[in-house]
């Protein structure tokens, strides 16, 4: 049987930590090791962990950082300190379903070509109440996008925005040498986003639609589930200042350029990966530099439309940004 580790990062987590620890203890497939990296807690976090250690028969290792590293770097160190062949990333404020470990380990056992798997989650509030929504719904990981992922579109999906929630992610230990340290490409691309994007290059990350985590949203969490940002309606597009629109597009252009530049200097990257990143960069450079004169926008917009860039890179209701580019 494979050794299973849980990588849990804590920081002043006394409010919800005990519920998370109990849910790890109560797994239908027991874990072998819980590795906790604390980022400078000043509350009862240590006391809660020490009390928990006395109630379980698996090893609980607690490391206290000498300085605050922040969530992403803390997770990076915590994961690398795990000794299990399969490592589960764990937040301090969620609740695991009892069959989470069992189902994700079973997936990896039955898919030896996959190096990671993430799952769906139920969104709950501070009191543990659900609004009936899942994180797949919140980030719009729809059935059509799931199908496209399975067909080989994982990297394209992830290059547009964040789909993989670290709190639902299980990885194979062997990938640590490949994905760490997490490169500083763009600020938003933290440990879970980078791991999933890197593995998606070779279609090495899968998913389960099962709800295996109750994902808690509250005001003090370090990293929340932000999805793909607020929905921009047609009314919004025509009411907002043009400078606001262009600043958002400029950010997308700079992020796309940063990703392309980074992957372009890596060895053995597939040409289609670089091509898609380059196309995305070209598309957002065009959109972010459209002139105020609407007539002068027509040709570059039609050229991008003819290359199918709006559908590929803006996705969903791609005709909305197209109309916005023409008329805003």
Features:
328 residues; alpha/beta; Spore Coat Polysaccharide Biosynthesis Protein SpsA, Chain A; 2 domains; 9-stranded mixed sheet; 14 helices; 45% helix
What features would you describe in this structure?
It is a single chain. By secondary structure, the chain is α/β, with parallel strands linked by helices. The chain folds into 2 domains: 4-216, Spore Coat Polysaccharide Biosynthesis Protein SpsA, Chain A; 234-327, no CATH class. Helices cover 45% and strands 17% of the residues. The protein has helices spanning 17-25, 45-53, 71-81, 100-110, 135-138, 143-160, 176-179, 191-200, 234-239, 242-264, 271-288, 298-306, 309-314, 319-327, and strands at 4-10, 33-38, 59-64, 86-90, 95-96, 116-124, 130-134, 170-172, 205-216. Strands 1, 2, 3, 4, 5, 6, 7, 8 and 9 form a 9-stranded mixed beta sheet that branches. Strand 1, helix 1 and strand 2 (33-38) form a beta-alpha-beta unit. Helix 10 (242-264) runs antiparallel to helix 11. The protein is elongated. The protein starts with a strand and ends with a helix. The model has no long low-confidence stretch (mean pLDDT 92).
Secondary-structure map with pairings?
Blueprint: E1 4-10, H1 17-25, E2 33-38, H2 45-53, E3 59-64, H3 71-81, E4 86-90, E5 95-96, H4 100-110, E6 116-124, E7 130-134, H5 135-138, H6 143-160, E8 170-172, H7 176-179, H8 191-200, E9 205-216, H9 234-239, H10 242-264, H11 271-288, H12 298-306, H13 309-314, H14 319-327
Parallel strand pairs: 1-2, 1-4, 2-3, 6-9
Antiparallel strand pairs: 4-8, 5-9, 6-7, 6-8
């Amino acid at each position: 049987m494979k050794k299973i580790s849980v990588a849990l990062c804590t920081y002043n987590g006394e409010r919800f930590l005990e519920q998370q620890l109990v849910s790890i203890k109560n797994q239908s497939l027991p874990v072998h090791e819980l590795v906790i990296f604390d980022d400078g807690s000043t509350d009862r976090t240590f006391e809660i962990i020490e009390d928990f250690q006395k109630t379980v028969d698996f090893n609980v290792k607690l490391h206290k950082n000498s300085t605050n590293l922040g969530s992403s770097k803390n997770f990076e160190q915590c994961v690398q300190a795990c000794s299990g062949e399969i490592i589960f990333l764990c937040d301090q404020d969620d609740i695991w379903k009892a069959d989470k470990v069992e189902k994700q380990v079973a997936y990896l056992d039955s898919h030896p070509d996959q190096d990671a798997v993430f799952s769906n989650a139920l969104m709950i509030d501070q009191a543990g109440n659900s609004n009936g929504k899942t994180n797949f719904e919140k980030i719009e990981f729809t059935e059509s996008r799931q199908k496209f992922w399975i067909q080989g579109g994982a990297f394209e999906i992830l290059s547009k925005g964040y789909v993989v929630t670290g709190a639902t992610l299980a990885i194979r230990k062997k990938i640590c040498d490949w994905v760490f340290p997490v490169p500083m490409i763009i600020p938003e691309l933290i440990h879970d986003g980078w791991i999933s994007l890197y593995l998606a290059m070779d279609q090495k990350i899968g998913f389960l639609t099962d709800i295996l985590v109750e994902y808690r949203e509250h005001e003090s969490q370090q990293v929340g589930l932000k999805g793909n940002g607020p929905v921009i309606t047609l009314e919004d597009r025509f009411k907002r200042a043009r400078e606001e629109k262009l600043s958002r597009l400029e950010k997308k252009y700079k992020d796309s350029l940063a990703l392309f530049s980074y992957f372009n200097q890596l060895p053995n990257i597939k040409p289609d990966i670089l091509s898609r990143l380059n196309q995305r960069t070209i598309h957002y450079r065009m959109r972010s530099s459209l002139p105020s004169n609407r007539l002068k926008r027509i040709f570059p917009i039609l050229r991008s439309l003819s290359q199918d860039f709006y559908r590929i890179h803006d996705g969903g209701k791609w005709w909305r940004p197209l109309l916005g580019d023409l008329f805003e």
